[in-house]
Amino acid sequence: MCKILIVDASDSDRRLMSGLLTRAGYEPIIVEEMEAAKQEVMKLSPGAVIVSAMKFRGGTARELINWLKDEGYKFPVLAVVDNLVPMELIDVMCDWGAINIIQRPAIDKQLVEMVDKYARSENVMFFLDNTLIRRKSADFRGIEQSIEKIGATNANVIIFGEIGMGREQVAREIYEHSSRTQKPIIVIEAGGAPHIGKHDPKSDRSETYNRIKGYFTNADGGTIILKNLELLTFDKQSVLLHILETEHPNVRIICTADPHILQMVKDKEFRANLFYLLRATDIRILPLRDVTEDIPGLADFFLTRHAKDNDEPKKHLDSSALKALKLHPWPGNIRELHNVIILAAYSTEGDTISESDLDISESAPTPETSLLLKDPDKDRDRIIEAYRRGGSWTAAAKLLGISERALLEQRKRHGINKKGQVES
Question: What is the pTM of this model?
């Protein structure tokens, strides 16, 4: 819901404008004097509009606009004027900087139309909330079963998966299925944990200990979600291990981690004893490129929510768009897919989104599990996987980054038939 700041000394007109904007689906904020206006401007989200009377308590529209310029704010200002002559209106818009005007006697006719012209949706375009999006793949059904089983216990758990696959959402679902829901849940970013917790300088304990211990004190009886476990430095690992082994806090820990942490444990870059304390059990989430059957459902979910949030007809993807989405490797996973779909929904004129409407960036790191042919010992498996994922040899060639002719030669070399099977 987009916010509209109304600055006007007239109580009756403030009420009138507030009612008109509320019925139009906006969130009006009403003030009557300059200092209050400044305070509210500092809280406004991108996309907001300011509607200002020419004069009000403690200031004028011109002074407010000048303040906005000096402070670097670029919110559009609509000036409410009282039957000014054309030359005066030009002065208001050109010299003062108001983007347009509303005649006070015609507020009921002009206000909403003018605001519609300049307001932008306050919906955060590239934001995924904490909702776990239900999906149809067998992999996700397995995750749901694991959530129910693990949630019924108090075991610590690590959720393995790449960024953007909803690891935190799965962690929260485990919490919701647990017996600890009446107690606090605290979410900590492992890379920043030592800098956010509280420290008592008078304590004889180290600052790191005090900060990390504070999380357990605040979450007593509840749950800590520790995100990106692999980012926890070695000295912080030691403190966390000490707290868990010697103090046995009544707190369940649910961690999210990149699968690379397994190699870190092997290379002794992450303490094995801490790792196994935290990984009493685990859940593994496959990357989106390995569960492409989920892409149509996820895209539909994003388009449905976009239509609802913006009160507009739902758009849909045609076959060319769906094919392009399934062929992309999605290094950013569901988060990246969300961004692509929402951007297309905003920018596409009609109700159908085609491949040409999708802005899929190729400037991204190549996933470690890329299908590009680079290892003769694994090329056969990559070719078969590319065919499975793409559904045709033309699509497989694109995924492999080679021409169809070159792919045909590779297939002959590895004995792969037209059905993507290895001939004996």
Answer: 0.61
When pLDDT is averaged across residues 28-51 and rounded to a whole number, the result is 90
Unique residue bearing structure tokens 């062929």:
327
Q: What is the pLDDT of residues 105-133, one digit of tens each?
A: 889 888 998 898 888 764 433 456 678 89
Between the CA of residue 270 and those of 86, 229, 236, what are the distances in Å?
Answer: 73, 10, 11
- Listed residue (196, 193, 20, 189) closest to 109, CA to CA: 20
Contact of 215 with 190, CB cutoff 8 Å = no
Pick the CATH number of 3-118 from 3.40.50.2300, 3.40.1050.10, 1.10.357.10, 3.30.465.10: 3.40.50.2300
Q: What pLDDT is stored for residue 146 in this prediction? A: 95
| Contact criterion met (CB below 8 Å) for 238 and 211 | no
How far apart are the C-alpha atoms of 87 and 90, rounded to whole Å? 5
Tell me how crowded residue 283 is: count the other CB atoms within 10 A of its CB: 21
CA pair distance 16, 220, nearest whole angstrom: 50
Judged by DSSP in three states, 317 sits in: strand
Q: Are 38 and 7 a contacting pair, CB within 8 Å?
A: no
Least Cα distance to 296 among 316, 277, 276, 274 occurs for 316
Task: Dump pLDDT digits (tens) for 277-333.
Answer: 999 999 999 999 889 999 999 999 999 988 888 888 999 999 999 999 988 888 889
Direct distance between the N- and C-terminal alpha carbons of the chain, in angstroms, rounded to an integer: 62
Please report, for residues 169, 193, 229, 282, the alpha-carbon distance to residue 189 in angstroms, rounded to integers and kept in the order given: 14, 6, 8, 19
Provide, rounded to the nearest whole percent, the portion of the chain with pLDDT above 90. Answer: 44
Task: Pick the closest to residue 399 from 359, 372, 369, 361 (CA basis).
Answer: 372
Q: Using alpha carbons, list the distances in angstroms from residue 120 to 26, 46, 76, 78, 346.
A: 11, 8, 11, 14, 11
Residue spans of beta strands (DSSP E) within 163-262: 185-189, 223-227, 252-257
Q: Which CATH topology does 141-285 take?
A: Rossmann fold (3.40.50)
Dist. CA 217–CA 240, nearest whole Å: 13
What are the structure tokens assigned to 164, written together?
């953007």
For 367-412, the pLDDT digits (tens) are: 555 556 656 667 888 788 878 777 788 878 777 777 788 788 888 8
pLDDT at position 364: 53
